[in-house]
Amino acid sequence: MAIRDLVPWTSRRGQASVRRSEEVNPFLTLHREMNRLFDDVFRGFDLPSFGTERLLDPATGWPNIEVSETDKDIKVSAELPGLEQKDVEVELTNDVLAIRGEKKTETEDKDRLFSERYYGRFERRIPVDNIEEDKVSASFKNGVLTVTLPKSATAQPKAKRIAINGK
Hints:
Layout: E1 9-12, E2 15-18, H1 26-42, H2 52-55, E3 65-69, E4 73-79, E5 88-93, E6 96-103, E7 120-127, E8 137-141, E9 144-150
Antiparallel strand pairs: 1-2, 3-4, 4-9, 5-6, 6-7, 8-9
């Protein structure tokens, strides 16, 4: 193997050019160019982009949720500002917790000049395993829905401490 085989450049008609790392993988280059193309096309329609900005868009995953787990249960909290308990539905089916509802507008569209608030139907689906379905409970306080899902006895970890013997 020659030293020139290790240098990241190719010769085109006698001119040396440095290869960019994206050019090594043509699929990555194609993916980036397609994202840029769609971003350019939809920029004029005031829609979120298809790139990383879409992941940061709050309406993409509304409502915002928080999931915590202990040895005995899983807790799911959802922020639902401006909603009441009657506007929200919680359902557990086939090991999937579904939180759905609708946030209705408070003013008519003709009176609204500008709004960044989210209105409309929403649904979040969270997969959960080994839950005691009969003991699931939910509470709604100050615009925060908290669902407690107790784990079944088979799902709770059983740990035994093992002593380490020295020689």
